[in-house]
Amino acid sequence: MKLHKESKGTITVATILFIIISVLAIYFLKMWSLLIIMPILIIYSLVFWFFRVPERNILEHIENVIAPVDGKVVMIKEVEETEFLKGKAIQVSIFMSPLNVHICRYPASGKVTYKKYHPGKYLVAWHEKSSTENERTTVAVETATNHQVVFRQIAGYVARRIVFYCNEGDQAKAGHEFGFIKFGSRMDVFLPLDTEIICKIGDITKGGLDVIAKLKN
């Protein structure tokens, strides 16, 4: 199983803790040590599972907006996007549980025109105000169809580390990685009002594969 580069520090710490706890359990509990070691082993294995990098066949997209993460669509509504678009847009929000793949992918192809990191709170990721009050990043891409697509990584109550690798001027390719969020959170995508929304609330998405919307050409 291929692991993401963001896993190195976490897996190192998890391995050290697992060894220490196992040694202490065996020393003090003897034959009863498995009662401690087995649950810890399951948690240790989940750390590796969380940082997995699945093989995915990413296609070329021009008008299609692609799911940026694995997760569940929890919101589709018209909102006022005040940071970059400074106007009305359709917001599509996808919530990620700790068991989802947490690679963050470009939802649209084009040129990165804006990026910014915002420190903030750690409200639960499905809270509506988390989009504007939590720790977050905002990225905008100008597409080949001359639309601005804005998307936002949002930290949650558990997720306390967001990374993004893109810079202004970069060429974005829909479905390809631009960042990572550790341990459960949310991504919002802001689309023009005339966008055809294909997904619906409750849909389970696969990042880089599922089409969630289509831009007007």
TrEMBL record:
The keyword GTP-binding does not apply. It holds the Pfam family PS_Dcarbxylase. InterPro entries: PS_Dcarbxylase, PSD-A. It comes from Chryseobacterium angstadtii. One of its GO terms (molecular function) is phosphatidylserine decarboxylase activity. This is Phosphatidylserine decarboxylase. The chain crosses the membrane at residues 9-28, 34-51. Keywords: Cell membrane, Decarboxylase, Lipid biosynthesis, Lipid metabolism, Lyase, Membrane, Phospholipid biosynthesis, Phospholipid metabolism, Pyruvate, Transmembrane, Transmembrane helix, Zymogen.
